[in-house]
Design goal:
By secondary structure, the protein is an alpha/beta fold. The protein is built from 11 helices and 6 strands. The protein folds into 2 domains: about 5-135, 3-Layer(aba) Sandwich (Rossmann fold); about 150-215, Arc Repressor Mutant, subunit A, CATH 1.10.10.
């Protein structure tokens, strides 16, 4: 059983009513909330200043997204564990969370019991995703991350350019290689990512997963 009052928290959400409700729920249950952020910049400042045990962040916030806050804080060596609270259930968001090695991902529809369960897990060094996520969805997101790690540096570079909606001709010109070489790399990427081998699949997948790809 965790000592609630000894756990330090930062919470951030740009919806005042949601932020207020979350704060009241934590304080009613004797958690130690050090600060509240109304946007990504405030959240990052609070996290850097206090280095709480756990930071609860919305994903969609002004100035900096929750993912951007987490990435910056990690780069600065902060040891805080991060749990995102979001309405987003799409695989691309789960993949981003896994790519950033975020400790927990909950949905705003989850109960406070689920929030506490997640906190206990992440404090033990485990990863926790909402029980609302289907197992196949979580596995697919994990597989995407593993498959991306199979790419060579050249393939990663080309995939990043594909995710910027650049054509094979534009990529060839930018990298001073032949279109045939680009197409060969595209074919290898498709095979490694286990995508359908047609002309539009890779571009569609790359555009949908741009945020994850840019972290390669």
């Amino acid at each position: 059983m965790i000592d609630k009052n000894s756990i330090t928290l930062i919470i951030a959400d740009d919806h005042p009513l949601l932020l207020k409700g979350l704060y009241e729920e934590f304080t009613r249950n004797n958690y130690n909330v050090l600060g509240q952020g109304k946007n990504g910049t405030e959240a990052l400042q609070l996290i850097l200043a206090h280095e709480p045990d756990i930071a609860f962040l919305d994903i969609d916030m002004p100035y900096l997204t929750g993912f951007e806050v987490i990435k910056t804080a990690k780069e600065k060596g902060v040891k805080t564990k991060f749990i995102v609270l979001s309405f987003h259930k799409e695989q691309e968001y789960i993949s981003q969370a896994k790519a950033l090695q975020i400790n927990g991902y909950l949905l705003k529809e989850d109960s406070f019991f689920e929030i506490e369960r997640c906190m206990e897990n992440v404090l033990k060094g485990e990863y926790c995703f909402s029980r609302s996520f289907e197992a196949d969805l979580l596995k697919s997101a994990s597989d995407d991350i593993k498959n991306l790690q199979l790419l060579t540096p050249s393939e990663s570079t080309i995939l990043k350019m594909v995710s910027q909606n650049k054509s094979s001709h534009e990529i060839a010109e930018a990298l001073f290689i032949s279109i045939r070489t680009v197409e060969k790399h595209r074919s290898n990427i498709i095979n490694k990512l286990k995508l359908d081998p047609n002309n539009n699949t890779l571009t569609s997948w790359a555009l949908s997963n741009k945020a994850v790809i840019q972290k390669l």
